[in-house]
Write a structure and sequence with these properties.
Blueprint: E1 7-13, H1 17-23, H2 26-33, E2 37-43, E3 56-57, E4 67-68, H3 70-83, E5 88-98, H4 101-107, E6 112-117, H5 125-130, E7 134-137, H6 147-158, H7 168-172, E8 191-192, E9 195-196, H8 206-224
Parallel strand pairs: 1-2, 1-6, 5-6, 5-7
Antiparallel strand pairs: 3-4, 8-9
Bound molecules: S-adenosylmethionine (SAM).
Length: 230
Amino acid sequence: MSPTPLIRIDILSAVPDIMVSAINASIIKIAQEKGIAKINLHNLHDYSDNKFRHIDDYPFGGAAGMLIKCQPVFDCIEKLRSERDYDEIIYMSADGQNLNQSISNELSLKRNIIIIAGRYKGIDQRIRDYFVTREISIGDYVLSGGELPAIVLTDSIVRLLPGVLGDLSSALEDSYQDGMLEPPRYTRPAEFRGMKVPEVLLSGDPKKIKEWENEQSINKTKSRKPYLLD
Ligand code: SAM
């Protein structure tokens, strides 16, 4: 029997096909094969009570575009909630809180998460008011749908789960984990087309290497994202 996953993520979408290859490749695939994470895609059209499987309708008040209706989302979430408790119901939204590493760290400690990917002009406000515990944006721009944001969030969570990456310390040494950007990294050969790897990295002296990395991290953070140092 496969072990109980550390995290289960259910993603609701009008176009789940967009996410199929992303959840079946690389790190998210490995996490699922190891039984550490379980990612389920739910097609909102399957929950529509409309004979043509429509899930959208015109907004009241005359705004342009269409909105995802309450009914399919309520039915899908209520079905999922009848099967288990959820720690978070997240709506991916351009007007939500901007995603950052500490949000992903926090969410990686949860057991069951629902993510709603919007489409069209978005979703009926009553879904947000009734179910949603958190609204997350992946940046100050508007995409056509929440599927790519849902995958961005899922990837950022899943890669933090113990056992997913060959060496968890690799994720912990990434940018943002200690509030700073990662220093430059080099691999073999030590010289390529005349470009040499910094001498200190070949010195074999862990203390000197750490000092150099810290200095590089601080300089990079100061010049690119100084607000992280505040
Ligand atoms: N009318 C919405 C607004 O002005 O904020 C934009 C709707 S957008 C065309 C459709 C869906 O894409 C949204 O419901 C949301 O799920 C998703 N989306 C778009 N941009 C996003 C972003 N930056 N971060 C997260 N989700 C986003």
